[in-house]
Amino acid sequence: MFETLLENFTPEKNITIWLIVAFVLAFLIAFQTFPTILYVAKEKHLMDEPDSRSVHSDKTPTLGGIGIFVGLIVVMTLVGAFLNTKVLLLVMGGLTILFFLGLKDDLTVLSARKKFIGQIVAASLLIVFTNTRIIGFSKILDIDVLPYWVSVGFTLFVYILIINAYNLIDGVDGLAGTIACCISAIFVYLFVNSNELSLATIAIALCGCLLAFLRFNFSKTNKIFMGDTGSMIVGFLLAFFTISFINMAQLDKSSAYFKASPALAFALLFYPLLDTLRIFLIRVVIHKTSPFKADKNHIHHKFIKYGYSHLMTTVLISSINVVIIGIAFNLLHLNLNTQIIFLMLYGSALYTLPFLLKKIGNK
């Protein structure tokens, strides 16, 4: 009976049930994994020591990425027989490369060069073997289709940018996890509408893993950080979702996002990209130091400095990002260049608003 059920089951005809099962399975696996990670980290003294940049005063494990990785890999392995095996295997390969690099960095120290090389290899696997790449600029600055190797190079740059931009926002309880969970949920909607069930399944599995992680990341007694392991694999998946979405839209002239996918992708990732651009300008132009030198000039650090709690900082930043995404969906009818200009204006204004309100309230 069970064998007959499996033979007759098709995810495409049971999308809602399929996605719920993938979400619940990912959540439960990750949720059951985190207590073990916490126990081992405490027993073996694998804890993060607070330093001058830390916004925490207690030693905390930074191995949350292990739980996220385990949840994702188990779900993708179990569902692989029903979906696009090639894509799932390549994603799992990329995740595994970044997982071990991130784990080494969390446990010892890994040079930026080795992490950079690992990110290039992981991204190249998907770009080359699935041909999933940004094929053009959709008339941004009047640039349309790119030559193949320029397209590959630009797509690789986008991967590296998103992975490292996401890593930079992991500095306040719940912020990186909440931002990624919201973005992934939007991608579930976009992929389901595009009949890309394999991608929707990975995205909703990531949501499940992240919700389980947030339960512990917000905890006062059993806190765990995402670490480089988590930030790299989550950033990698967000980059993969972004590039896959743009690629699908650019290849389908009937898509509602055919001419607007770059602007919508920019809106989804607006906060990490804005923070990265801002921090690089501060370091290079104002402080005249290396753009890779760590400091406390991130937007989330500024929220903390202005008196917002970790929770309120996460809620405000995440809420603003959701509002930005909502506005972007309602501007899809505009010219793409106009959408991007408006996005930069209203996005920057919205992230300035909490500081203005705080100043007014303190008067």
From TrEMBL:
Annotated membrane topology: Multi-pass membrane protein
Record's keyword annotation contains Transmembrane: yes
InterPro entries in the cross-refs: Glycosyl_transferase_4, PNAcMuramoyl-5peptid_Trfase_CS
PROSITE patterns: MRAY_2
Subcellular location: Cell membrane
EC number: 2.7.8.-
Top-level division of the source organism's lineage: Bacteria
Enzyme kind, highest EC tier: transferase
Main subcellular localisation: membrane
Ranges annotated as spanning the membrane: 15-41, 62-81, 87-104, 116-136, 148-167, 174-192, 198-218, 230-251, 263-286, 307-332, 338-357
Keywords associated with the record: Cell membrane, Membrane, Transferase, Transmembrane, Transmembrane helix
MF terms in GO: transferase activity
Protein's UniProt name: MraY family glycosyltransferase
Organism of this sequence: Winogradskyella poriferorum
